[in-house]
Amino acid sequence: MTRVSAWQRVGNGVGLVGVLAIAWFIAETTPTEEAWQGPIVVSGDIGETLTGRNIEAVVSEVRITETVTASNGWAGPTTGVWVVVDASVSAVVDDLGASLGTADLVIDGVTYSASERPDDGTIARQPLTTAIPVSGPLMFEIPREIVETEASQPATIQLAINSDPRADSVLAIEVDLGALPLLPSVDTNEPSWGAL
Amino acid sequence: MKRWFKRNAVALVAVAVLTPTTIAVTFSTEWSSYLSTRATQPVEVAEGRTAEFDGTEWRVTRTERVSSDSRAGVEAGLPAGSDLVMVTVEVNPGNATTEDESSFCTVRLGEYEGSGDTATRSWGDATFAAIDYRNPAGVESGCSPDIIEPYVFISTFVIADDASDNLGVQLEIPDRLPQYLLLRL
Amino acid sequence: MKVPTRWLVAVLIALFLVASAAFGGLEDADTPPLPQLDVGESFTGAQLRIAVEDAVLIDAFPEAFITPQPGNRLLVIRATVDNVWDKPVTTISRIGAADNVRPRGIDGIEDEPLTVSVISDGSAYPKLQPAVPIELAFVWEVPDGAVSQSDVITVDVLDKTYAAGGLVTYGERFENPFVAAYVEVPVTDVGAGVGVDQESETP
Fold first, then answer.
1. Is A74 in Cβ contact with C201 (below 8 Å)?
2. What residues contact B45, with CB distance under 8 A and at least 6 apart?
3. Residue A148: which CATH number?
4. Neighboring chain A residues of B158 at a CB cutoff of 8 Å
5. Using DSSP, how many helices (H) and how many strands (E) does chain A show?
6. Distance (Å, rounded) from C-alpha A137 to C-alpha A139?
């Protein structure tokens, strides 16, 4: 057996360090399960039509109110306040089993979901049709403290076809709740089907 | 270096052949069971022609398209920006089925591009949609497995009014997947 | 001198046991007693803060379209529930707040309630929003006579443990409900009358 020279030892050491560095790099940059299963987000503002793979929506108005009365007569008592989002939503390519499964409001990392208490007075969870929008209100109950101050309060409205938002499009609409006045009461429109 | 290749030639060739083969076999077993439950193989039928599928003969005899702006559309209570498409299909159940039942099917309407057979957009049946249109009395609105004599059904679809004329009915029979009938309109 | 390893281990274990005698030795540890809440006092669990307000016997709950079988009545536990998590919480059984309140030892009440409804508008199975407390009615069907006016019943308040990820599951959830506190509540029989507030809900 030949003697291993000093240079070969150094070479082995450098090679080992190199392999370890590459392994560390791969481990750090491998997407986590959340990353590769995560939703594909399409962002926009109020008034902008956002188009995902199979969902398209435009949010026309956001209002904050103490009490809300829906078109079917439901009036919503709450210990917090209501955020009323008027939106128009449709499927894009395929409406088999499509419905507004996710309608969330995310404020500072806390998620609020659109209330189903108004039943057919809201478009939450209503079925969607390809290219023929359904328009109506979404009502979110949020704690009063969030809108008590005048400070800016950025929030995101998230809309998606599935109640499990993984690996499909999520439309994200940015809104500043702090810039909206707190109205005493709001009467919402009846959900309607058809182009605006 | 060359000597190493020579000595290990057989092993290297084996790796080069077996690696892609193993990948292909593993993927295909998974994918084929997934694809066999979905409608991926259309049996195309040109406009007006009769097709034989699942022991039954199918033929589109009439297609009507009513705009939401027209008087008929307003009477039918169509949503703004939509058209109502009514497809009349003649069904001739063969006596091939054993239980004295004809085929059960689900129908969707697809919009196509050129002669492609993958729909760019599709719509579901409007039997329970929020419109005022109802089929004439006695006319079925879809496949009826308890009818074993020849019969006619009219499928209705509420589609976007910007849909082109290149439409087709996707008729799926669960037992026949992945094959399905594509009736061009 | 070489000491065999197994001797060393045995000696260490013996020393450890002797030392533990100073802390109670091998006796069973005392389980802490279950806290008792007053009526209206809240218990804060990992996911929900629950305060049992009262218990009411009633003939039917028409706002939520519930009418019991003949010979049965409805036991309604009213509770104020607050979501202390950062995501909406469902109220359905097996995964939601219906698992968190249970009257104890009453004939006919084994498991999940008939329904969980919002007191103010009768909507069934609401989704509880973070930091928005809401008054809920947990409704069970009981045979007539199982509970009567002025009986004091024990209502258990349960908590759940948080879990996330997993080999075949995805996302966060709370599971494995366990009794965390209890309340002694007197029952009021309101007969056929309605002792609850209601806003109109056009069916």
1. yes
2. B51, B58, B60, B181, B182, B183, B184
3. 2.60.40.1240
4. 129, 132
5. 3, 11
6. 6
| Whether residue A81 is found in the same domain as residue A19 | no
Nearest CA in chain B to A193: B79
Q: Which CATH number is B42-184 given?
A: 2.60.40.1240
Decide: helix, strand or coil at residue A149.
coil
Write out the DSSP string of C114-175.
Answer: SEEEETTT--BSPPBPBT--EEEEEEEEEETTSS-TT-EEEEEEEEEEEEE--SS--SEEEE
Of A93, A95, A194, the CB nearest to B82: A194
A132: nearest CB among B120, B122, B160: B160
Q: Is C9 exposed, middle or buried (0-12, 13-18, 19+ CB in 10 A)?
A: exposed
Beta bridge partners of B108: B124, B170
pLDDT category at A34 given cuts 50, 70, 90 is confident
Domain positions in chain B are: 2-35, 42-184
Q: Does A34 touch chain C (CB under 8 A)?
A: no
The C-alpha angle C187, C193, C197, rounded to 5 degrees, equals: 85
Same domain, A104 and A178: yes
Sheet with B50-53, edge to edge strand ranges = B50-53, B56-67, B82-93, B151-160
* Torsion sign across C-alpha atoms B18, B24, B27, B32: negative
A76 touching chain C per CB within 8 A: yes
Quick: pLDDT tens for C167-183.
777 778 898 899 999 99
Helix (H) or strand (E) holding A34: helix A33-37
A35 located within any domain: no
Total number of domains in chain A: 2
At residue B97, the pLDDT reads 55
Residues of B in contact with A193 (CB under 8 A): 79, 130
Structural domain boundaries enclosing A81:
40-193
* Domain shared by A6 and A101, yes or no: no
Do A50 and A85 fall within a single domain?
Answer: yes
- Quick one: tokens of A85? 């989002």
Which of A99, A128, A192, A193 would best serve as a mutation to test chain B binding (most B beta carbons within 10 A)? A193
How crowded is the C-beta side of C141, counted as CA atoms within 13 Å? 10
Question: Minimal CA–CA distance to A136: which of A174, A67, A187, A66?
Answer: A187
DSSP secondary structure letters along A110-139: EEEE---TTGGGS-TT-B-BBTB-EEEEEE
pLDDT tens string B30-42: 888 888 888 788 8
Residues A91-139 have pLDDT tens digits of 999 999 899 999 999 999 999 999 999 989 999 999 999 999 999 999 9
Residues A155 and A105 in one domain: yes
Q: Which residue of A has its CA nearest to B110?
A: A94
Tell me the mean pLDDT in the region A60-69: 95
Q: Where are the domains of chain C?
A: 33-189
Query: CA of B106 to nearest chain A CA: how many angstroms apart?
Result: 11
> Which of A94, A132, A192 has its CB closest to that of B122?
A94
Best A64, A82, A104, A117 residue to mutate vs chain C (most C CBs within 10 Å): A117
| Architecture in CATH for domain C33-189 | Sandwich (2.60)
